[in-house]
Specification:
Helices cover about 30% and strands about 30% of the residues. It is an alpha+beta fold. It folds into three domains: about 1-125, Rossmann fold (3-Layer(aba) Sandwich); about 145-210, ATP-grasp fold, A domain (Dna Ligase, domain 1); about 215-310, ATP-grasp fold, B domain (D-amino Acid Aminotransferase, Chain A, domain 1, 2-Layer Sandwich). A hairpin with a 4-residue loop joins β7 and β8.
Length: about 325
């Protein structure tokens, strides 16, 4: 008599006169394996666990905590020496950490994306990190943004001409996030104060936008895989004009507006982003919705924001898992 019972695994074999019990731990071998680097603050650690669990249900193994800072490139390989993993052999890499990207990590990000799929792709991520390149592309595809100018650092007379034409303008670093470095220029005196500081930073060019008249609130619209995920509002604090939470702005519940949602989906598509958070304001003078920025790593709702009613995390996780599932299936077919 032979009977097998698989729990952890227990294998019982009875051959009439003898009874042998053998313990064999079952090892599940996933057919697909991805790497992940997701921020851990603001509830990110919990989000990561949920994504990993849902991917596991689809037979996808996840190696988490793969910070490219701890990777090296040698010959034709990119190896994460702490995890002892050949990253170029993964089926996909999911990078979702805005605050810790260094030049070295970006360099490896670009190289890795040449051989395996990334979410977001290096091309899309690097585009959205550059405000000028993003605005330039969006306007060329018929997506409304503030009027902007890019000029050489030695061409300060152009900046003075812009002030006379627009009355007020905003200086923006072309990279960065969270409203850091944004400066409103309301007159030539402000410009004269700002220029020595910018020259000291050894910038090669200036990027400025026309300051738009709006109600000091914006729409943050999240899009995943071309689908609407969520909409909430952000409001500037007191006399400030910046709505970014890191600059003192506050989050509030806001109903989605069909026109703004359609604009966000189009902007995400133009930028080639699988995941995007699109910041939109309503221009009171032009009476239209305008895209301010496209963010390639929009945050999930924090535990505090969930308590106030922002409940889009579940939908966002499901769409991301579905996206990873589809992209890794396609990758496996090509092998």
């Amino acid at each position: 008599m032979i009977f097998l019972v698989f729990y952890d695994k227990i294998r019982v074999v009875n051959h009439n006169t003898s009874l042998t019990i053998k313990y064999q731990r079952e090892r599940i071998v996933m057919s697909r394996k991805i790497g992940m680097w997701l921020y851990q603050n603001g509830g990110g650690d919990k989000i990561e666990k949920e994504i990993i669990e849902k991917l596991k249900e689809r037979d996808i193994e996840t190696l988490s905590g793969l910070n490219l800072r701890d990777a090296i490139a040698k010959n034709g390989r990119i190896v994460h020496h702490k995890k002892r993993t050949k990253l170029d052999k993964l089926d996909l890499f999911f990078s979702y950490n805005a605050g810790e990207q260094t030049q070295y990590q970006m360099f490896l990000y670009q190289a890795l994306n040449r051989v395996i799929p990334m979410i977001n792709s290096y091309e899309a991520f690097s585009l959205t990190e550059d405000k000028f390149q993003t605005s330039f592309l969006l306007q060329n595809h018929g997506v409304s943004t503030p009027e902007f100018r890019l000029c050489h650092r030695d061409d300060s007379e152009q900046l003075r001409a812009f002030i006379k034409k627009w009355n007020r303008l905003v200086y923006k670093p072309t990279d960065g996030w969270g409203g850091v470095g944004l400066t409103k220029i309301e007159n030539e005196a402000t410009l004269d104060t700002l220029l020595p500081f910018l020259n000291h930073m050894d910038l090669r060019f200036f990027y400025v936008e026309k300051f738009l008249k709006y109600d000091n609130t914006d729409f943050r619209i999240d899009v995943v895989d071309g689908q609407f995920v969520s909409c909430y509002g952000r409001k500037a604090s007191g006399s400030d004009w910046r709505t970014n939470v890191t600059s003192g702005g506050s989050v509030f519940l806001r109903e989605p507006v069909e026109e703004a949602v359609a604009l966000a989906i189009k902007a995400a598509k133009v930028c080639g982003t699988d995941i995007a958070g699109v910041d939109i304001i309503y221009d009171l003078e032009r009476e239209e919705y305008v895209v301010l920025e496209v963010n390639g790593i929009p945050a999930f709702a924090t535990p505090e924001q969930e308590k106030m009613g922002l409940d889009f995390n579940k939908k966002k996780i499901e769409l991301i898992v579905e996206l990873i599932d589809r992209k890794t299936k396609k990758q496996n077919k090509g092998k």
